[in-house]
Amino acid sequence: MTVRKTAQIYEGKAKKVYDTTDPALAIVSYKDDATAFNGLKRGTIAGKGVVNNRVSNHLFRLLEKEGVPTHYVEELSDRETLVKKVQIVPVEVIVRNIVAGSLAKRLGLAEGTRLRSAVIEYCYKNDDLGDPMINETHIAALGLATHDEMETIARYALAVNRFLTGYLEGLGIELIDFKLEFGRADGRIVLADEISPDTCRFWDTASGEKLDKDRFRRDLGHVEEAYGEILRRLTGGGGEA
Ligand code: ADP
Ligand code: UDP
Question: I need a surface site. Which of 71, 140, 198, 206 has the fewest CB within 10 A?
């Protein structure tokens, strides 16, 4: 691989993003830093960056085969991945199969209640505002994405949900909910950012045990072990995180 990192263009809560010698490509570097509640809770999860990098790349490679275009190009190391540099659509796409987290609070439903069909929610990606929930008319009115782009995004989000739900079921993991981000590369919509225990709720099918960032958010303990367990089940190795 002849592409090299040049300047750091962004440091977020969980990753750094670098420009490269190829203007169409970027390198993302996954950190162990963990935040929750819009940055109010901060900490470190040892080995998280490695788990999220490997898990996300593994899932993106599978999703590409399922016909969902992604930003993934090549895993460079334990923590670093070469991706297509995209213009991020500033909309977080949340897909839910089972009630948890903010939906439980908002609708007064018990966590664990199965939804009759998948729910899609959109949030405006804006940390200063705390990522408020919006709908398609806000997205159109603010010019965040076109109607056609949102149609594509919703179709891909449901395709990701269908594939991941079945794939994870085979590994004894229930997919409760997750967050996706999409971007524009060469005028087309691609899945970007990450899919990992930071951005999904994973419950062990047999025990109901949480294997995701809720262990950090809710001080449930064994956070590193849960991340390691997800990596081990998905890729069969490296569960030492
Ligand atoms: P946050 O910005 O929420 O703190 P991260 O720490 O994960 O999140 O930072 C990574 C940033 O990189 C996010 O803002 C994300 O939207 C952005 N990003 C993800 N994939 C790409 C990509 N392929 N090209 C450009 N930016 C990306
Ligand atoms: N999520 C995320 N980033 C966010 C908000 C949510 O990755 O900024 C994920 C979260 O991990 C969960 C799903 O989206 O898998 C739904 O989160 P919810 O709305 O319940 O919010 P939370 O309980 O995290 O406040």
Answer: 206
* Domains contained in the chain, CATH given: 5-84 (3.30.200.20), 87-223 (3.30.470.20)
At 93, the amino acid letter reads V
What stretches in the chain show pLDDT beneath 70?
A: 1, 237-241
What phi and psi, each to the nearest 5 degrees, are found at residue 180?
Answer: -120, 155
Pocket of ligand 2 (CB under 6 A): 92, 94, 100-103, 131, 177-179, 199-201, 213
Torsion sign (Cα): 62, 67, 72, 75: positive
Task: Report pLDDT digits (tens) over 18-39.
Answer: 999 999 999 999 999 999 999 9
DSSP letter for 70, please.
B
Nearest CA to ligand 1 atom 14: 12
Q: For 136-227, list the strands marked E by DSSP.
A: 173-185, 188-192, 200-204
User: What pLDDT does residue 238 have?
Assistant: 55
